[in-house]
Design brief:
The chain is mainly β. The protein is built from eight helices and 31 strands.
Length: about 500
């Protein structure tokens, strides 16, 4: 048993023919064998299985599932169920910053850090934008996607920041295809369902560069195509494979018209379905169970050109119109219908609201400053700061009633200049939207009750030293982070 501890317990052979009943007979036989074992013996065997494989073993048969659930063998505290903070990446920083709230009062809280400097680097001392040169890995630390505790980086590296494990994927298909089609990678991972993760490369139509030949037949063709070719990497097989996904329903439009549309591309994974936010603001709803997909048109009355920022999370979509107008839609998928329902529609700048200020602010790690900017005589302090980890349990994250400031609007607050509001993301478990106020402060806006919490500073220390042009407007990318503490990691380095 000790020699097999790192391997998942395998279900009956999935290649058995569905029509001859062999698969059902083998499953019944397995359940009979499990039933002969005393409950204590079965639980003791399963207790030796690593948590990650235990999640997969739970799906083998009813007896194993009952043993796992009844004895609480699957450690929920290891799974990506709670919010730890936000990754915020400024354009001219090499590494993303991490914003989290420290809390020493949470019993059993694990240490969390978003510092990715533990990853191998070809140019570890290159910390400034103007120091980039040929062979520099400056862009490698840009986060493409996040899913249930794992990050997908620009260099196709999948990393778990909590356990500091990573895996660089083998070289896959090219980024571009015929007709100026660009493939963009997105991550799928759910440790409750499978111990393995997948990376999908999804085709999108890109702009033609000057001098490139335009194919008229491609411009008039429907997009996405009826058979949508995607490339899928599986950490189980360790290789890429080509898969066709069949469209159900109408296309979003012609390739030529979609090229001129909004170029935002983000994703959310929820219960076996991958939601992709594509050009002209339509969604691709990709079912991973039967290799089909459908196009979901944007909400009625949504003019993409009026919106500065749009994000999706699970079955929610939010947009910022103008500078402070927040709208949130819910996708209702009941009865086989896809209907957008407007849940929230508020002008935050003039809306009376309750304002919460916390005694203990969330903390920005200032990773880039500590690695590249701190002076040499502060080396001891630098090491201590960069290795500091912040403890926080978001489930105990409650506001202090004594710190409530009633009846103010964003416009009334003189301490900070709240002119530009940007979306940072959704809280994974609560009705909360995270916002950036002029890229200086992180706010938590409660959809139920219209409360606003001022969480803390997100503007990095001495960022002006990292900028190539001092007056250049910053662009930030943000990702909500829910850590996964399961140690087993397929292909880990």
């Amino acid at each position: 048993m000790a020699g097999d501890a790192g391997q998942p317990l395998k279900p009956p052979d999935a290649t058995a023919a569905h029509g001859d009943g062999r698969e059902e007979e083998e499953e019944e036989e397995l359940e009979d064998q499990a039933a002969r074992l005393p409950d204590d013996v079965l639980a003791d065997i399963l207790r030796r299985v690593p948590p990650r494989w235990l999640a997969a073993s739970r799906c083998v048969c009813r007896a194993w599932r009952d043993a796992v659930d009844g004895r609480r063998l699957l450690r929920a505290d290891l799974l990506s169920l709670s919010l730890a903070g936000l990754f915020v990446h400024f354009d001219e920083h090499k590494l993303p910053e991490f914003l989290a709230r420290p809390s020493s009062s949470a019993a059993g809280a694990r240490a969390v850090s978003g510092n990715l400097s533990f990853l191998p680097s070809a140019s570890p001392n290159c910390g400034y934008y103007w120091q980039r040169s040929k062979g520099c890995d400056w862009k490698n630390y840009n986060i493409k996607d996040h899913c249930n505790g794992l990050l997908l980086l620009h260099n196709n590296c999948v990393v778990n920041p909590a356990t500091r494990q990573w895996n660089i994927l083998p070289k896959g298909p090219g980024k571009r295809g015929a007709g100026n089609v660009r493939y963009r990678a997105r991550l799928v991972y759910d440790p409750m369902v499978s111990p393995y993760y997948k990376v999908f490369k999804i085709p999108t139509v890109a702009y033609y560069c000057r001098g490139e030949e335009v194919d008229p037949s491609m411009e008039e063709s429907q997009w996405p195509p009826f058979l949508c070719k995607m490339f899928v990497y599986s950490s189980k097989s360790g290789c890429w494979e080509e898969k066709d996904f069949v469209r159900e329903g109408d296309a979003a439009g012609t390739a030529g018209k979609l090229r001129a549309g909004y170029s935002e591309f983000s994703a959310a994974y929820f219960r076996g379905t991958l939601y992709l936010h594509c050009q002209t603001d339509f969604l691709m709803r990709v079912s991973l169970s039967d290799n089909t997909y459908s196009v979901i048109k944007p909400p009625m009355g949504l003019n993409v050109e009026d919106y500065l920022e749009i994000k999706i999370a699970k079955s929610e979509k939010a947009g910022i119109r103008g500078k402070c107008w927040l709208r949130v839609w819910i996708l209702n998928e009941s009865c086989g219908q896809m209907v957008w329902m407007l849940k929230h529609d508020k002008d935050l700048k003039h809306m009376p609201c309750q304002w919460f200020c916390r005694r203990v602010k969330w903390v920005l790690e200032d990773i880039n400053y500590n690695l590249f900017r701190a002076s040499k005589f502060q080396q001891d302090n630098k090491k201590e700061t960069t290795e500091e980890k912040f403890e926080w349990n978001s489930d105990e994250d409650v506001e202090d009633k004594n710190m409530v400031d009633h009846g103010h609007s964003l416009e009334d607050k003189k301490a900070l200049v709240y002119y530009d509001i940007e979306l940072l993301g959704f809280h994974p478990n609560k009705e909360i939207v995270f916002l950036s106020a002029s890229q200086q402060t992180c706010l938590a806006y409660h959809l139920n009750g219209s409360k606003i919490e001022e969480l803390g500073n997100i503007y990095p220390k001495d960022y002006y030293w990292f900028k190539e042009l001092a007056n250049e407007q910053e662009h930030i990318k943000s990702f909500i982070y829910t850590p996964c503490w399961i140690e087993e990691f397929p292909g880990s380095n």
